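Anyone else keep sequences and structure tokens together like this?

Example one:
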Amino acid sequence: MILDQVTDYITGKEIDNVGAEASRQIFEKFLVETKGYAKSDILVDVPLTVQFKGEDYPSVIDLIVNVEDRPFMAITCVAGSIGSYEREILAGARLVYDHIVPFAVSTDARDAIIKDACTGETIGQGLDAIPDHSQARTQLEKIEARPLDPDKRSGEMIIYRSFNLEKVNK
């Protein structure tokens, strides 16, 4: 079986056009052309390995948007219901680095849910609620890097793995 290939908007690499890839390509372009982020601000397929019952489960966060070299948003791009993925990306934002990425976004490139990754509260819905680069810079000035409570780490790993099974080991 030959898979369709597309050129990733951010990296310029040829990738398989499967799953939510079409949504991700639209959203990457939206971040750059509408919201004013530089391509260099956006990391694609950021590795995240969680442990469960003593085993490693490698996965990736679709996109991490940095502002002035600080992680600002962790994003999952989906082909289905964005609400089904908000808890997964919330756990991912809490686990991917040694401090919590402040915002977790679930999107299908037509709609988006934005969560405060520290509190878990939904703080916005819709593409208009995605902060542009200037707004992100202003918001990030007020946010101190916060580590995840070590007592919550294993629970977040279980949640991430449970919601992320289709991406695990890819």
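And example two:
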Amino acid sequence: MAKTPELEVAYRATTYRVFLPEGQFDLRVDQPSPQLAEWLAAARAPGFAVITAFNPGGRRLPDDDNLGRQSALECDLLEGNYEPYSAENRPDDAAAPVEESCFVPDITREDALALADDYEQNAILWGGADGIPRLAWTEELE
């Protein structure tokens, strides 16, 4: 998948809403989240990723297809001994679809990118213990 200026603008104009037992956190690219950093410290998680299987390559799919893909992603994460939490990618553009996603603590950037690539995604949101979400592009794997 190719990184384009339009995709980067769209991904930066999105709220990544994470649902954790302690509450929901709204993440934005490159904006620190002290609450997330606190949660990661308490969980002893060195980092995290937000991954979706919805709309591969930016192509809008029917809801049933997206839900099936997302279910398969969640199964892959569980089989990989990860503990995914529910999340949503909520674009600022009201005409764009909200995508289900997974918040995954304790996953390396490389593993998260490889999994996203398996599901034909352009990018993931990832970060370290500092709680600052960043974009990482699957094309970086090549």
